[in-house]
Amino acid sequence: MKSIQFLCLILLLSFGAKTQEINLIPEPVTLLKQSGFFNLKPSTTILLSNNDPELQRLGRVLAEMIGTPTGYRLPIRTGTKTTINAIVLVLEKTTFQVVGQEEGYSLEVGRNKIEIKAQTTHGIFNGLQTLIQLFPKEIEANAVQRVAWNIPSVSIQDYPRFAWRGMLLDVSRHFHNKAMVKSYLDQLAKFKYNTFHWHLSDDQGWRIEIKKYPKLTSVGAWRVPRVGKWWKRPEPEENEATTEGGFYTQEDVKEIVQYAKDRYITILPEIDVPGHSLAILAAYPELATVPKNFKVNPGSEFYRKVENSLDPSNDKTYEFLDGVFTEIAQLFPHPYIHIGGDECYKGYWETSNNCKKLMEKEGLKDTKELQSFFVKKVEKILQSKGKKLIGWDEILEGGLAPDATVMSWRGTKGGIEAAKMGHNVVMTPSDFCYIDLYQGDPILEPDTYGKLRLNKAYSYEPSEGIDSKYLLGGQCNLWSENIPNKRQAEYMTYPRALATAEVFWSAKDRKNFDGFAKRVEAQFARFDVAKINYSRSMFDPIVALVDKQIQLNTEVNGLDIHYTFERGIPDNFYPKAKNGDKIPIPKGADQIRVVNYRDGKPIGKILLISIADLEKR
Ligand code: ACM
């Protein structure tokens, strides 16, 4: 009897492992599923191939990642003696090569051992992220879970498609504190992002302590408290207390830079000049063409009505930027500093006598060339600090600075043009990479603008029209006008940042949206365990008026669409449509309600929209 029970247990365990799915994001270059699994036990050893201090640290990181949810305190040893019941991390700087990719790794999970090999510790780190995704989802918990810690047998070879895999977080429009930034970095690392673009200044707040210019934070980091629709919020009143905001001290910055470094993420700081500078002018009004009592903007409309650009004709502007970039360069090891350069309103430059005089003296034919003059001077400042300049694609206008790298956001045109001129580019076109846009029907989503569905984010191909020699990689951007807190940041980030993670990492021929959507759902279950928010908008109905009929669509395949033009609440007993069906509008119909089902269960939100609103779209 005992032996039958034992047999049943073995069968159950092996059946469990056979059906344990592999859902990795980003998808590795090659993945070979094998039968069987590795069972992690309290006695499993972490074996490190040598005494490299960083490899030793990664061994401890792995022990900790595993320790919290399993309750196991895995022993860590160093040596090369083959062992069973071990997770082996092999750093082979000379002998092992993953097609020349320094972030690459191989991962073998067998019944007796797991082995990650790489030529750099970055590769080992990437392999660890993949390994954790192979564990049951409970590995994401922050308390001990009782599950069988089985890891399916696989053989993986993996390396990134692009070296620059970035994510921008705007901390100006809404300040996000140190704990939030760390948590955000934790998640980015899991999906093999390696660049965190920190948008540290804008019209709505300056966020980093600069010792030489203390008013940047004592004044520029604070604004009058407001809620409500962005750009429609009441303007600051005279003498109203500025109680909303915050900033990072230099000690905070050092801590976050190290925190990111421990996760193989480098931080690209952005100081957005010469436009987007109202918070600077609130602190140092003498840097405007006409000094005034400027106020940090709380989300009220001001563009063109209030100057928000630095005066490019004033030597003090460059002295100020030299002081700021001296401290920024010391704080951030990233080879680049991002100087913004986008959306600079030049109306006040046009009427400034000093600007006119400078343009005449320098032979600049318009204010675009004046901005180019400014950017070229800033490039020299950065170079004097040992840094390279990167800016938004507006820096192309009026002539690109000699060694500038361009971040292409207004579509792909700027990136294509810059690469043709032999400049490096990072691609982040807003219609594919801006994750502050609506991800589902605006009726069902919090207020924002534009539209970027998951499937569109996934469809992006960064190399189109660009010589790969100049294409550093790509980036996803989370602007924060409508991101008041961490939960909303996560909601907007996931799952679209999973799509771009795959676009920037995975081999082009590995991409498949249906397969990706399935893996995203598996990731949702892991986010639930990790208590990370995300959006399920990919399951919501898509309704449009086409040829005077209602067209119903779904973003992911395999859903049943149910709808009604009457007053009921549709369920799966209501009329059903197929993806793309066009439904004639019954006489008198003033609205439609739609819901999606899968396997007889509701999935996604119910969408109610009036026919009149559909006609207006
Ligand atoms: C930008 O979105 N203004 C770079």
Q: What global shape is seen?
A: globular
Instruction: Report the sheet-strand fraction.
Output: 15-25%
Overall mean confidence score, pLDDT: 95
For the report, how would you describe the main beta sheet?
Answer: 8 strands, parallel, barrel
Q: Remind me, CATH topology of the largest domain?
A: TIM Barrel
The small molecules bound here are: acetamide
- Fraction of residues in helix: 25-40%
Distance, first to last CA? 70 Å
Tell me the number of structural domains: 3
Low-confidence stretches: 6-18
The assigned CATH architecture of the largest domain is Alpha-Beta Barrel
CATH class wording of the largest domain: Alpha Beta
Number of helices: 18
Query: How much is the radius of gyration in Å?
Result: 27 Å
Going across the major beta sheet, what is the strand order?
8-9-14-15-16-17-18-19
CATH superfamily of the largest domain: Glycosidases
In terms of structural class, how would the helical and strand content be classed? alpha/beta
Give the total of beta strands. Answer: 26
